[in-house]
Amino acid sequence: MQIRKAVIPVAGLGTRFLPASKAIPKEMLTIVDRPTIQYIVEEVVASGIDQVILITSAGKSAIENHFDYDYELDHVLTKKKKHVLADEINHISNLIDVVSVRQKKPLGLGHAILQARHVIGDEPFVVLLGDDLVLSDQPCTKQMINLFEEVGESIVAVQRVPMDQTYQYGIVEGVKERDQVHKIKRMVEKPAPGTTNSDMAIIGRYILQPEIFDLLEKTTPGHGGEIQLTDALLALTNKRGMYAYEFEGTRFDAGDKLGYLKAIIAFGLRHPEVCDNFSDHLKEVASQL
Ligand code: G1P
Q: What was the pLDDT predicted at 93?
């Protein structure tokens, strides 16, 4: 079945980015000239998906506004003959159909995904977490859709992390089927140090069969007292099977201060307008270290 819908949870408080995220959603923090959420939505569009479902909460309307048509701005830019800029701004509102659903209580990632149930219905869908930006030739989501068309089961994107960092992630244990593809055997959200031998960390890209919703309904609070998506994924693994996919590309944790700075450098070095001067500047800075 073709994948048409993407869920992007954006309801989180963004405490890791306070005070920057006090009055604006952390998803609206800028990387070069675009908010981080725009990179995520562009990945969705480039992967051939038709609809984005944002799971929001109070104080997140700036995200919805960003993807909406802004009549006044269009009018002012056009009047000032700033046509290129007007086209670029209007392009954002034409990117994709955006629907938003409220998560009324902060009960965890699993609970956030469950809020999309009535919009998704009975079809497989993708989930993208806004903190994880991936730079790759082929969008990470598209790579996963290609694998899904082959295996027909749910998939999580994984990357190897140092063993002393496994406690920060959902960790997957599996059996290698072939290059980059593992059949999942076990999964645990943020394992205590020393309790897993696997270094395969879930990063924020998932393709899920709609059975996940029934399993999420039954999922009780887990790590941190929250309803964890990883716990429902383990139930899905046991029920019908699931794959881990080592994607091609570089992932940045834009929800972390250092990861965010690294993302700015990587995306800045690829931005057509500033890349050359930025690269010269970085060389100069490096020579002074
Ligand atoms: C979430 C997931 C976790 C995953 C991580 C990837 O955790 O619960 O399984 O490894 O995203 O970024 P969070 O970082 O939101 O605590």
A: 87
